[in-house]
Amino acid sequence: MIQKGLTLIELVLVIAILSILSAVAIPRFLNLGTNARISSMSALSGALNTAMSIVHAQVMVQGPGSKGTQANITWISLGDGTRVRLWNTYPDRWCDGVGAIVQGVQAPAGDSCYLSSAAVPTTTNIRFYGYGNSQSPGGNAGWRDESATNATYCSVEYVYNGTIKPVVITNTSGC
């Protein structure tokens, strides 16, 4: 006799095997978003440390730049023409300081970034917040992934008080 299809037992076995595979694969697949956000925050942290060191080295070689209106504030221009606000030779805590060296943010004209903790719009889910915001741990300047489960703890903080080398903290527990 020629068989043209699956028997009921074979069909049940195929469905059972597919169910077991999907029960294992779906949670693994869903975790890829978390892993991607963690990797993104780690890469951002590395980019920030590198950019901060390059800016500081430029200041040490070429001088502090042009004097700003606030005490201990100077301005330099990067190779692409981006102006960066410095506070005692390191990028300041605002979108025209540390925000500009990683994202290449075109800061608004004048001093409208200074003392602003508002989010800087971008084309991605990662937003920059200036110092004193309520969006990052401790109110530090930094970036956070707005698509994360807990964006406050899926972030990179830039901790700087103007006296010692800035510290970069990567938070991934909320990714």
Describe this structure in words.
Helices cover 35% and strands 20% of the residues. The chain contains 2 helices and 9 strands. It has a 5-stranded antiparallel sheet with strand order 5-6-7-8-9, covered by helices on one side. Strands 1-2-3-4 form a 4-stranded antiparallel sheet. β8 and β9 form a beta hairpin. The chain is elongated. It starts with 7 loop residues before the first helix and ends with a strand. The model has no long low-confidence stretch (mean pLDDT 85).
Record keyword descriptors for this entry.
alpha+beta, four-stranded antiparallel beta sheet, 175 residues, single chain, 2 helices, 9 strands
Cα radius of gyration in angstroms: 24 Å
* Low-confidence parts: none
Tell me about the biggest sheet? 5 strands, antiparallel
Helix content: 25-40%
The counted number of beta strands is 9
What is the percentage of strand-forming residues? 15-25%
Number of helices: 2
Question: Which outline best applies?
Answer: elongated
What is the average of the pLDDT values?
Answer: 85
* Count of all domains: 1
* Class derived from helix and strand content: alpha+beta
Alpha-carbon distance between the two ends: 58 Å
Widest sheet: strand ordering: 5-6-7-8-9
Please trace the helix and strand order, writing H or E for each element. Answer: HEEEEHEEEEE
